[in-house]
Amino acid sequence: MSKPSYRILIAPACFKGSLSAHQVAALVHGFLAERLPENILLDCCPVADGGDDTLAVLQGADSGFQAYEANITGPIAGFKTQAHYLYHAARKMVVIEAAQAHGLTLLPGGELRPLQATSYGVGELIRQAVHTCDPETLVITVGGSASTDGGMGALQALGVEFLDKQDRLIQEPLCGGNLKQVHRVVWPRREMFHGQLLIATDVVNPLLGKTGAAAVFAPQKGATPKQCAELEKGLAHIHRLIVRACGTDCATLPGAGAAGGLAYGLRLLPRSGIVSGSNWVAGQLGLGRRIEAADLVITGEGRLDATSFQGKATGNILVWADQKPVFFFCGQVANHLSQLADVSVFPLVRADDPADVLQAAMENPTAALARQLEAAWPRWQALLP
Description:
There is one protein chain. By secondary structure, the protein is an alpha/beta fold. It has two domains: about 5-45 and about 285-385, Glycerate kinase, domain 1 (Rossmann fold); about 55-280, Glycerate kinase, domain 2, CATH 3.90.1510.10. About 35% of the residues lie in helices and about 20% in strands. It has a six-stranded mixed beta sheet, with helices on both faces. It has a five-stranded parallel beta sheet with strand order 2-1-11-12-13, sandwiched between helices. A two-stranded antiparallel ribbon has the order 7-8. Helix 1 packs across helix 13 and helix 12 (about 355-365) packs across helix 13. The longest helix has 22 residues, at about 225-245.
């Protein structure tokens, strides 16, 4: 076999709701493998940024990650859900996707309940993972949450005690709507976890205020303006009690408002820190090194818009690729993105396409992507040695 003289990196994220990152990468790889000579190397590296598909991407990249299951409380108390997390024995690392416990997609009947949603199940998932695996490093990816409880539900499941005005222990899982019932917080004397805790998110919002968890993200979870104000008051109230109980003020830290303030609550735990989700996942995949080695980069995601450049994996790839040719496949693309001047973009659906075109692409995304790969082929041929 001749030595590879040209390297193509295939590094897509998932097309949310239709194709996983692995499925997109396999489709692109299959298309090119049938047409390219053997001296061109295809490097498949499905990507994620700490949100959807992260666990699948990590497990696909490193067979050392093993999946474990847990039966835990979902985003609404009284409703159980089946979640899974990853453990890497050689690295003594657990990775948890918080949305598997309190994600929007888990709401019973799909009904948005911003005041009742809790992060209690996240704490249960952490507790079970620590008990089962005893890791040295615990990584929690946050995002896509249904709750706005400041992570108090999770802390409650981890042993932090919340007492009411009568100094009685609050037994029901805390949620955004009942934070004001808390009168006193009692921190446990014994640490539940003795390793390093990394909270992975690319949100930079603080806990409180006009750019905080309630004001910015609660409307996406179904909260009315009145409910947003109620959630804000609850978060401000519990923050004052937390500072009084443990003397730690994490409310203004960048990212504290992520996942309804879950990042704030977890950041209160010892040896914890907030890190960039996309950068952390990229490090696990060796993405920077693989981009540097590539002659051409292929990436993509469900929608390409301004948020793609706010910490998402695909936006980072466009930046890190620098002067290399980049082909971007996506479900849809927003207009007037200055960052795309030197990028070849192939949307499955264009802004002026009729509704039936969008419907057809959603029903058969594989066929829609195949058509765009055919459209890109002449441009690829022009770049090949």
